[in-house]
Design brief:
This protein is mainly β. It contains no helices and 17 strands. It has strands at about 5, 20-25, 30-35, 45-50, 60-65, 70-75, 85-95, 100-110, 110-115, 120, 130-135, 140-145, 160-170, 175-190, 190-200, 205-210, 215. Residues about 1-15 and about 190-215 have low confidence and may be disordered.
Length: about 220
Amino acid sequence: MAKETFDRSKPHVNIGTVSQIVTDTSGQLTLGGVGDQVGGNPAPSTKLFISAPGSGDPQSFVVAYPFDTDFVFTPIADCCRDMSMDFFIDILPTQVTGTADVEVTLAILQDEVFVATGHGGSVSEGGGWLTIGDSGMLARDFFEADGGASHPDFTKTFQFGYAFMGDYSTEGLDVELSVDNMTVGLNNVPEPMSLAVVLVLCGGALMCRRGLIPTMR
């Protein structure tokens, strides 16, 4: 299939400031972020902060980090109903305390925030940069982040992002990590070699490649 390529750089996008709290059962979650860090894999990268005080009861959270509306996927006609996605992101966890579990996963914004449950990976402190992700995700692998059971419709416009989700209780929550090099590959099924879109996040910079069937605006 013929390909065309374009690059669009937004070096000052600070994904730490465009976060969206989807679920926060304690109501006390706080977020922060610093873009264009000197360190990276390679530099620059974006540093994120997620914290909450301790609670006597188990609490949970989902925080989505959507890209702005320049990075919206718009399919043509009914081409992408059975499309699959590949997702990878580099994470440097420098502090993860007071929580039983924190995971990062691909997120899609389409009326609701949908997360690819079970297709990301756990984040734990230490060990340097690690790559987390999964391949071959279908629409049925994405669920509403607030607990609903519906799925996104790949034949309709949606926005790309990623999400962190986790649980905590008496010890509270304190997470500090850096994010770099996110890629999303869109594949036509049953033609896995037809790469449609790739998004690359390097610190605050985004680069896109598109094929002829879907379009990115």
